[in-house]
Structure formats: structure tokens, C-alpha cells
Amino acid sequence: MVRQRPTASLFVPAGGSLDDLREAASGCTACPLYADATQTVFGEGAAGARVLLVGEQPGDKEDLAGAPFVGPAGRLLDEALAAAGVDRSEAYVTNAVKHFKWTRKGNGKVRLHQKPNAAEVTACRPWLEAELEAVAPEIVVCLGATAAASLLGNEVRVTRDRGRWLSSDLAPRALATIHPSAVLRSVDEAARVEAFDGLVADLSLIPPALAG
Ligand code: URA
User: Fold this and answer.
1) How many helices (H) and strands (E) does the chain have?
2) Is 1 inside a domain boundary?
3) Is 29 a member of any domain?
4) pLDDT per residue over 74-92, tens digit each?
5) Exposed/middle/buried for 66, CB within 10 Å: 0-12, 13-18, 19+?
6) Over pLDDT 90: what percentage of the chain?
7) Distance 61 CA to ligand 1 centre (A)
8) What's the CA gap between 172 and 151, in Å, rounded?
């Protein structure tokens, strides 16, 4: 018999409001990541937000603050959204995985981000599904490969499929684009500008879709 790994579905209150979900998620132990994280970082925004943005997982700053995209990647995201004409304060912002996965290098103080594995993403997916149900957005935006795989399936390739509307049963429209951290990791200024402009171009699909 194949042993099923636990998922967050054990913790998700059926039909819960965003406040109910946030409260329940604060005690989630469905995967081992809770043990080394400061807290669950649940999504932020209102039910009824027309755009729902999904990143990978909280980083160091988000883990400490308890809010998504408040560190360097968040500032870059804010810049890109503003350049694309999307108001972050009207969007719902969340992550595929709700706990910070990290490792320490040597005896140093810095907590280094580690990519969540497929089991951790799967374990956390019920929270994302519940957020989608509660928010019911018109547009879902997957920022990077982890979010795209969790929401749109493993066959989606961000480099190939970004910047156009993708079919999804999650929302009337789905979009995949790069993660803001990819811009921050650019090797030089020219690459940074190119990556940033590409992110803005992808996000620029949103305002006309909301208007149309
Ligand atoms: N990276 C993410 O994917 N999400 C955050 O909230 C912060 C950094």
C-alpha cells in the first residue's frame, strides 16, 4: 500500500473566510518546514481582489514580518507592478509554500533560502486552493516556476509560456512570469534591466484584461 504524505487539507477549515484560514494556517504542521520557521506567512489582501499573485515561499524578511513580499524581492515586485499599472494594494498576494525554508551556512548568522521540494509544495497546496476559493480572483499570476508548477502543472515552463494568457480552471485568466528574485540575481546591469523590463511587459497584460 502506498502511504500518503499528510497535506494541509487536515488543517483547512471548509468554506472558511480568509481570517479563518489565516488563523488555522498559523498552526499548520503538515510538512516539516514549520519547525524551523518563525511563523506561517499567509497571504495578504481582500476577498474579492481581482488579481491574485503567487510567489514561491516567504524569505528571511517575510518570515520575521509575517507578511509576503516585504523584503528585497517584494520591493522589486512593487516597482514592477507600479511600472505595469497594477495596484498592489488591490491585489491578493501569497506564496505556494507558507513557511520559510532555509539553511545556515557554516556558523554564520545569515539564513540562506532553500527551494521547497515537490512534497512540501504539494503539502501546502490546500492553503492555496482555499485562498483561491475565498478570493475568487479574475486573474491568477504565478511568479516563477514553483508557483507555476503548483497551480498550473509541471508541464508549464515559465520561459516558454510566460507573457500570455494560459488556460486554467483556477481563474478565468492565468499568467506565468518570472519570479522577482530572478531580476535581483541578474549577472550585470544590462541583464537586470532586460529581466525587469520582461517582468513589467508580462504584468502589463493585467490592466487591459481588467478593463476589458
Ligand atoms: N519570495 C517569494 O517567493 N515570496 C515572498 O514572499 C518573498 C520572497
Assistant:
1) 9, 6
2) no
3) yes
4) 999 999 999 999 999 999 9
5) middle
6) 92
7) 9
8) 13
Cα separation, 179 vs 55, in Å, equals 7
What is the pairing mode between strands 111-113 and 102-104?
antiparallel
Q: What is the bridge-based pairing of β-strands 111-113 and 139-143? A: unpaired
Cα–Cα distance measured from residue 158 to residue 56, given in angstroms and rounded to the nearest whole number: 13
* Site residues for ligand 1, CB cut-off 6 Å: 55-59, 62, 68-69, 71, 73-74, 95, 181
Q: What is the CATH number of the domain that holds 161?
A: 3.40.470.10
Reading the block at residue 53, the C-alpha cell is 499573485
pLDDT tens digits, 54-75: 999 999 999 999 999 999 999 9
Residue 2 covered by a domain: no
For 167-179, the pLDDT digits (tens) are 899 999 999 999 9
CA 110 / ligand 1 centre spacing (Å): 17
Ligand 1 closest atom vs CA 67: 6
* Of 93, 76, 79, nearest in space to 137 by CA: 93
Asked, for residue 80, whether it belongs to a domain, the answer is: yes
Distance 73 CA to ligand 1 centre (A): 6
- Residue 38 is placed in which grid cell? 518563525
Based on the structure, what is the number of domains in the chain? 1
Range of the domain at 177: 8-211
